């Protein structure tokens, strides 16, 4: 299980890096902080110094040794690193307290860890009269008997000239310029106090649960899972001493499958509790989107049959041995865990799609749990239902080549989805690689490839002998053909290019190889800077619609292409409002004179380096909201006209909201 641990350790720092750019300090989350570090320096002679680092831990918490534990899933070892602007030499390694390994309940093994207090020392040698300033960084994680917190980095700057120690990232300071630019972000919106931000997560949770359930049903039709249904159900119903016991065991088996997949989302709740915005904004992280793109490509070719992605066989063997030796409820749990491990080559890509889809939405870890719960429930239901009604087993189709057809079809779907993640990165960074027409062209090629496979023109490694095409396979091929036909107008520079059924998935209409006149949706004129938009609103005496959006925001594209494209809505936006669109995920660097360090309301410093940094902070500071899309109607004196809204797919409702704000503006202007 070292592979899984390595994967988690790889993802966590990326997620933490993401948090640096979106945490404005205004959230209400509470973060456990059970450890404090202190540093000091002692001079032995003119050239030898000892750096001393002391960790103080709250009761019940552990800090782990620098030595990595030799077990499958191991805690994160404490690591020290040193650098300086001058010359120095480390004498030996960083020492730690000598202590015998202790049994750790979390990792169920004897592990070296420290409680209450731990002192680490590092001797260094400096040449001649040199007095370098040394930066020491400590990478560590702490656990109690129930959980582990994500790894953190503690930083100390140690000046040997005077033996002074400074804690934290001291290279970030608040200057007068920082204070001025921070003050400029606060536009003092009048009327915001009347409207508390609303949470509209219920529907999102239900949608992701249903998507997860559908994903689980699809996974049932793969070669790794489908043949297991009759075998497992027969094992429980025939192997038990009586029918009632067999039914209970089979239902319990299904329940454990559901629980196992639900438990897979728990580590992300730990990240979410540390900072709720970590998972909500993954869609804007270029690195993660490229990683997802690569992973989906790998998954696709695995489904095509060119190789198998499997977890180490030792994992499933261990679980199988546990199931056989333990028996009872615990044994059934390990049987369910064995199924989850053995079927990973088929379920892994689907779970990857679910992970990418839910974490790039606004529901965070809870949304992921809903999706994983739906997936687990779909996998579990057949084992319970067929145990209750064993005669239904006779109606199941026999395993055969159709299972591989399902798997290859899923491979083409994974291939298409992969380019969505690459498109997200392309939009955020403005690379111009996947303009809308190029993206749709790739989807058309993927669709043609799937058609060619379904109609028997191309074959893959695990396909059986060539047979007559079944009605189901032919039907899916026809549906694919119709989908390709639907995509083709998207390649043109006409009104037919607005593919409303796919709103939010391809790049926006204005991100095109054709000259669209403006860089705003639907050819509207949109200001990308608050000050310029406000100035235009005052010159033209019009109200403002402030559009907080994102290049990688799916619901933003849906609003633009499905709601804003309504003729009445479009006319009101075009004729009666000044549109200011602020992209909170824009990774383009601000000019150097506009970059600054933002002092968060609750302490801490956030560097404002990109356009997205600025507008994300602008939104949370003034409107106490960090979701997109988010629409605000203001008069040109920055008074709120009505209640801000988010994603509003109902065209008439959105139009009424626009007209309400316009009427309020006109009423105020007459006074």
Automatic annotation (TrEMBL):
Keywords tagged on the record: Cytochrome c-type biogenesis, Membrane, Signal, Transmembrane, Transmembrane helix
Transmembrane regions: 205-226, 247-266, 286-307, 328-351, 371-389, 401-419, 439-460, 472-491
Cellular localization per UniProt: Membrane
One record GO biological process: cytochrome complex assembly
Source organism, top-level taxon: Bacteria
Domain Thiol:disulfide interchange protein DsbD N-terminal per the UniProt entry, residue ranges: 45-158
Membrane-related topology note: Multi-pass membrane protein
InterPro entries: Cyt_c_assmbl_TM_dom, DsbDN, DsbDN_sf, Thioredoxin-like_sf
Gene Ontology molecular function: protein-disulfide reductase activity
Signal sequence, renumbered to the chain: 1-19
Pfam annotation, one family: DsbD_N
Start and end residues of each Cytochrome C biogenesis protein transmembrane domain: 209-423
A GO-annotated cellular component: membrane
PANTHER family to which the protein is assigned, alphabetical: THIOL:DISULFIDE INTERCHANGE PROTEIN DSBD
UniProt-recorded name of the protein: Disulfide bond formation protein DsbD
